[in-house]
Write a structure and sequence with these properties.
Layout (H helix, E strand, L loop, with lengths): L10 H5 L6 H11 L3 E4 L7 H6 L4 E5 L2 H14 L5 E5 L11 E6 L10 H13 L1 E12 L3 H7 L3 E8 L6 E11 L4 E11 L5 E11 L3 H10 L2 E7 L13 E8 L6
Amino acid sequence: MTDFDVFARFYDADYGGFQDDLLMYRGFAERTGGPLLELACGTGRLLLPLAQAGYEITGVDISPALLAVARRKIEAAGLQERVTLVQADMRDLRLPRRFRLAFVAINSFMHLLTTGDQLRALRCWREHLTADGLLILDLFQPSPQSLLEADGHLTLDRQWQDPETGATVLRQTSRTLNLAEQTLEVTFIYEETLSDGRVRRTLAPFRMRYLHRFEAELLLELAGYELEQVYGTYDLDPLESDSERMILVARKGAEAAP
């Protein structure tokens, strides 16, 4: 069991409808061809549509509960021949094939909390890329004002109806900022009001370490990549001061730094 297993019951209702980044990944998949590698794939939000588009894709996640949800969806869609699921720590992969495109979607790279872990993961992924392979990191661009405004506050983010239980689910989020460590202590609070009036509360805490642009660029260089471009939106607009996203696209370089 991992810290991320608690998300499995809520993940699809919470994030399953998010598709803002799908066309971007399809565009890079068309450019590079398969096979594709998704790190921290969760319940398969991107795996399924990319497989349905005809690509062979491998999804890696550390959580057996999230992968179990992904596996049920893949089997229901009849995509077992195109999708391979691997339960593993994304810092220490040992896969038998090489990929033309690897990617880490919506902030998942930020679950790596130290420079050592970040470099270890990046170097590991580099070894799984073909000579002309690409890596995409999708991060949020840290805004000092937004980070400080969120610090210490409890916000109500979403509400939905659970189709299986009929419960009304509220998701609240608390965030605690550590400027010195560049970390966020985040807790998702899922509060379910059941049909009989009972209330069930589930806490899902995690930590994230955010990165600034040139810190991320230096990590890629040290790990043996050549930066191709940094974008600020999923439409591949240039990164600007007010961009919410920071999407780094890098090629596998000739050699990683020792």
